[in-house]
Amino acid sequence: MKPYLLPVLFTLLISGLSLWVEQGAYTSSTLGVPTVKVADYPVGLLTLEERCVDEKKQQVACHQLTDIQEGDILITKSNHTLFYRHGHAGVVIDAKEGLVLEALGYGESSTFEPLEKWNYYPTVKVLRLKDASQQDRLMSQNFTPFLGIDYHLFARKADLSATHCADIVWKVFNQIGIDVDSNGGYFVTPKDIAKSPYFFEIASYGFETEGDWS
Q: Is the pLDDT of residue 170 over 60?
């Protein structure tokens, strides 16, 4: 075997194992819609993103987010790399226009994504600041500095030249003095944000038990 084929075969093997392990991660009862199932879509070399699909494998909405406000945080655990379910996060910037600030992956910069796409994730939590005055103060800020930041998995919180999905959310709230990282670590994840005491849960879809990721 050609030596240069080994990394390719290894990548395919690990991706296949990951896909196999994730099959059946959600049941019809978990999703609440008997005819809806879950399929994986690649969003990177080793990263997969789950979407709801119908019996014909067409993507469909598996819920409908309502009562969304500016400053709400959206959390999903439907993104995974190999055997690590890291999830994804974004912050709603314009509820009327349906714009969510997100950092998607390598080769892309932070940008506004459509709110509607979150209806296609099998799992979504909507979090809102407990203190309404903090919500108002957050939305009075300028979000332009958070657009066009290059993606980097190991971005430092204080570094505005690199970011990732949970980090961009952390940076947005940090500008008004709120540390949304529940464990205060070097690296912030969507699950860390979901456990932050600053928020209460507005809605939850697809999470298996009450308190899951919170």
A: yes
Count CB-CB contacts under 10 A for residue 22: 17
Q: State mean pLDDT over 130-147.
A: 94
Structure confidence at residue 23 as a pLDDT band (50, 70, 90): very low
Judge contact between 71 and 131, C-beta under 8 A.
no
Start and end residues for every CATH 3.90.1720.10 domain found in the chain? 73-205
For residues 193 and 180, is the Cβ–Cβ distance under 8 A?
A: yes
Q: Can you tell me which residue has the tokens 């995974």?
A: 80
Minimal CA–CA distance to 20: which of 108, 80, 95?
80
Going by C-beta distance under 8 Å and a sequence separation of 6 or more, which residues neighbour residue 175?
A: 141
Please determine, for residue 44, whether its predicted confidence score (pLDDT) is greater than 70.
yes
Q: Which two tokens stand for residue 11?
A: 């990548």
DSSP string for residues in 120-171: GSS-EEEEEES-HHHHHHHHTS--GGGSSPEE-TT--TT-TTEE-HHHHHHH
In CATH terms, the superfamily for domain 73-205 is: endopeptidase domain like (from Nostoc punctiforme) (3.90.1720.10)
Residue 24 has a pLDDT of 43
On whether the CB atoms of residues 156 and 162 are closer than 8 A, the answer is: yes
**Buried/exposed code over 169-194 (b: 16+ C-beta within 10 A; e: otherwise):** bbbbbeeeebebbbeeeeebbbbbbb
- The overall pTM is greater than 0.90: no
pLDDT at position 68 over 90: yes
